[in-house]
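Please check these two lines:
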Amino acid sequence: MEAMTKKSDPSKHVLSVDDLSDSVVSDIFARAAEFKEKGFSSSSIYSRSPGNEPVVALAFFEPSTRTKLSFDTAAQRIGAKTIGFDNPESTSSAKGEQLSDTLRVIEKYADAIVVRRKAHDTVDIIREHVTVPVISAGVGSQEHPTQGLLDVFTIQERRSLDSISHVCSYGDLINSRTMFSQVRLMLRMAKPGITFSFVADKTMQISQDFKDELEAKGATVVTTNKLGDVISDLDILHVIRPQKERWEGLELDVYSPVGDRELSKMKSDAILLHALPRTGELDPATDADPRSAIWDQVENGLYIRAALLERVLS
């Protein structure tokens, strides 16, 4: 029987979309498309001898439905096993254990770790202390790289990326880790000179630092509090829920929901995205509109995460 080998390459961490080169992103998209079309039987992990299948630890310190279940399913579909938790109160974190110690314990039992956590310092702790590959399942309000990947993959299924010239993010922007990853990846993958519109109340609007980052890389950035200012021109409308769990006691202005009236003003080949869960900011009746891609996003999360897990475990 072959000996089990522990992966120890922190360069395989995926904590930001910037941890993935354009060529790697293209490879992940191609592999995800293959899994989607043909199933998972070609996974390289199935060649491992019995008892040497890799183990993926799911360390979820925050609630999750789609991300946790799709990572768990993806790992098992490609031939890996899973361990983990989705309630930190059931772990030694409830006793005051430091995150670095918790993660160092987990890496003794797993070949890769998927982490979701609220605190912003999580990424730095991982990069400093953890040697097995770690994939962010959403950390703080900083980034959610696999959501960014599945968003752009879903867009690419419907339209060539070089046809996308205007992407609009609408809602609680400053707290949306999904938005940060999606926009950064679209800036790299879409046509040069892309326009990003950010529609939000001033209490939820993007920071000047993020605007400067995008403009320094050649994007045109529009900030407004009126969706009507941009809706007729955009190619992508990304609706974002109020991230109330990050408001920390503040009461911010809840914005108007998007429904059929708003979609009637969009171009016929525009694409509607939403990472879910939706909490009143997007009318479920819009699911019937052919421009809605939100359930494609849900499905594609499985294939993107399977492709990424196979890569970091190989």
